[in-house]
Design a protein that fits this description.
Blueprint: E1 2-9, E2 15-17, H1 20-26, E3 29-34, E4 40-44, H2 45-56, H3 63-74, E5 77-80, E6 86-88, H4 91-97, E7 102-109, E8 111-116, H5 117-129, H6 131-139
């Protein structure tokens, strides 16, 4: 399980260092794609296969399903770590997430999210203000 928050910076080649605690669980090869809220999702191969199967099982006759599947898969690419634990984020993904230098890497259970630090701080402030309200709504979902 991926947990925690880490601050990093892209180098001039567009590489990011994946936190050491995440590397073993992530594996040598993994998948990056456009996430919700303008962040980048990283999935270990086994988790990606589960998500891929679930998405392929959805009814493609629905326009919203087709749209989401296109968005999710078109932004995806398989990545790998170098010997220093770094990976290159594509220009497409960096532009989508608004990442130019400072990044925040967070563990979110089965996936990792990479955020522009500015966007993460803004999102976090907004979510923090309504954290209790969100928690109350989650009770109805069995949490």
């Amino acid at each position: 399980m991926f947990l925690g928050e880490y601050q990093h910076a892209l180098d001039i080649k567009g590489r990011i260092t994946i936190p050491a605690r995440f590397r073993e669980m992530l594996g040598e090869r993994f998948v990056a794609t456009k996430g919700l809220d303008n962040c980048i999702y990283l999935y270990p191969q086994d988790e990606w296969k589960v998500i891929e199967e679930k998405l392929h099982a959805l009814p493609m006759t629905r326009a919203d399903v087709r749209s989401y599947v296109r968005f999710f898969f078109s932004g995806a690419s398989e990545l790998e770590l170098d010997k220093q634990g770094r990976t290159v984020l594509s220009v497409n993904l960096r532009n989508y997430a608004g990442i130019d230098k400072d990044v925040t890497v967070i563990g979110v259970g089965a996936r990792i999210e990479i955020w522009s630090t500015d966007k993460w701080e803004s999102y976090n402030e907004s979510a923090e203000a309504s954290y209790e309200e969100i928690a109350e709504k989650m009770v109805g979902l069995g949490i």
